[in-house]
TrEMBL record:
Keywords: Cytoplasm, Metal-binding, NADP, Oxidoreductase, RNA-binding, Zinc. This is Zinc-type alcohol dehydrogenase-like protein. It comes from the Bacteria. The keyword Cytoplasm applies. It holds the Pfam family ADH_zinc_N_2. Residues 16-331 form the Enoyl reductase (ER) domain. The keyword Mitochondrion does not apply. GO terms for cellular component: cytoplasm. Homotetramer. Belongs to the zinc-containing alcohol dehydrogenase family. Quinone oxidoreductase subfamily. One of its GO terms (molecular function) is oxidoreductase activity.
Amino acid sequence: MKAVGFFESLPITDEKSLQDVEVEKPKAMGKDILVRVQAISVNPVDTKQRRGAPPAGSEPKILGWDVAGVIEEVGNDVELFSVGDKVFYAGSVTRQGGNSDYHLVDERIVGQKPESLDFAEAAALPLTTITAWEALFERMNLSIDPSANKGKSILIIGAAGGVGSIAVQLAKLAGLYVIGTASRKETANWAKDTGADKIISHYEAFRQQLEANVDYIFCLNNTDQHWENMGEVLAPQGHIVSIVEAVENQDLNVLKNKSASFSYEFMFTRSMFETDDMIEQYLLLNEVSKLVDEGKIHTTLTDRGGPINAENLRAAHEKIESGKTIGKIVLENDE
């Protein structure tokens, strides 16, 4: 089958950084389903993986952790899906990704595709939506019921990116007052369009831009850069969640007097460690699919990047690495 992979870590400007390859079509066994890939989305994790350690052995590493497609085959232990089902998911970073004609994935981290979206629109959602959902409703322990969050506020740092675009929508759905950060007019407008109540700059001190402290902070951009700013504007007993690893050793004591807490969100944790609650992502994605079909959540697709091939994926990676993308970039296989 056709796929796009890499054999060595190279700058995206090098034509060998991502290559069109032929690999063996996988077979579904156990709890795996084999999906005929219709569309994939590109995320920062793709670029980080490509720039990281090269694949071991002679097989290419295939990236791509946002997929929408149709089930071609099911393993003998599959209980949740049938051949022909239309699905969407993010997959597991410890396995081959979905930048290919067919892709194997564990059924417990897959959801039924929203009926109201085409494959490209659906492929824009899984990774970022799982990340935002887990951060808000599991790490922060928020309720999706707006009546439970009356008067509460959240600051989303990087509100116009892939995760930010869906986090704003989910936070508004949960009844929070949403403050987003943006650095350009177009990103500020996008964040407002997705539901942000107020926009501030993440290049200026937060304190002077906010009328009051915030109850929650979701950091999607440079934990090190924003650490002191976050500690200063977080309300007593507040909570910070970040998806960005800290390079420097940060002082947790800035949270002590406020009895505040900090946690990371990594949406691949369940699949990476095969936790007992892996099926929570199946349930999560199905709930999101329902909310999409009810018109309560909207796709964050902004860029249809053409067919899934090495040239188009290199262009998508270059856009992601620029740090200036808005929403999600999606590529599509032929029907």
